[in-house]
Each structure stands twice: as C-alpha cells, then as structure tokens.
Specification:
The chain has about 130 residues and is an alpha+beta fold. It is built from 6 helices and 4 strands; from the N terminus they run βαβαββαααα. The relative contact order is 0.20. GO terms for molecular function: protein-disulfide reductase activity.
C-alpha cells in the first residue's frame, strides 16, 4: 500500500492531502506525518530520506520526492490526469524549483485554515 508522507506542521501540506482525497484518490493510498511513528521507520530504513522535509511517496522500495511525488499523485486522479501529464512533461528542474519556492515561502503567503476532516477523510491517515 503506497504511503504519502507529509509535513503535518504545514497547513498547505495537510490541506493538499485532503484535496487529493476529496478529488478521488484511490483507497490504496495512506497518509503519514513526517513527524509520526510511521515516518521514523522510513527514516531508519531509508537514511537518504532524512534530507527531505517535504512530501515523500513510498510504493514498496520505490521513493519519490517533491514534485515527482506531487506529479504521480495528481496523475492518479481520474479528473486531473491531464494536469499530472502536463506537470510530468515540465522539466524536473523547473518543477522542483517551483516546489521549493512554494515550500520556502509557505509561511509568508496567504493565510488558510486547517480543514476539519470527516470520517472518510480521516480513514486515509495512519498517523
């Protein structure tokens, strides 16, 4: 079962997870906080992941980071597959630059709120 690790201290990261669920993300995906117990297993089994404080997608032993993970997740959404394909066609260095600019400035951008999840949305989160 693929696991999406996200920064649970980031309102945008959390709300992105909720957005994916609301847009039809497959039930085979689960979400785990980078600050949680599940992520500790990831960090100890895959030491290279310690350098990332951003989204990580784990499917078995295959790991994707930053814009690659975002692109894969969006491509998995039936109604947004076109957007995922467009992102995939964008050169990786440009996607990662955009991702990093957003991540570095997320605390200085517009304000948003923490979404209150319903039971269905909660069922995707393992910690």
């Amino acid at each position: 079962m693929p696991i999406v690790y996200y920064d649970s201290n980031c309102v945008y990261c959390y709300n992105y997870a909720i957005w994916l669920i609301q847009k039809g993300l497959s039930r085979r995906y689960q979400f785990a906080s980078l600050q949680g117990d599940t992520a500790q297993n990831l960090l100890s089994n895959y030491p290279e992941t310690q350098q990332y404080d951003s989204v990580i997608l784990q499917e078995g032993d295959h790991l994707e980071y930053k814009s690659d993970a975002i692109t894969t997740l969006i491509t998995s959404l039936t109604n947004y597959k076109w957007l995922g394909v467009l992102l995939h066609l964008t050169p990786k260095f440009i996607r990662d630059l955009g991702y990093q600019l957003f991540a570095d400035n997320r605390n200085h951008m517009w304000k948003t709120h923490w979404h209150q999840p319903n039971d269905y949305e909660k069922s995707f989160f393992i910690d």
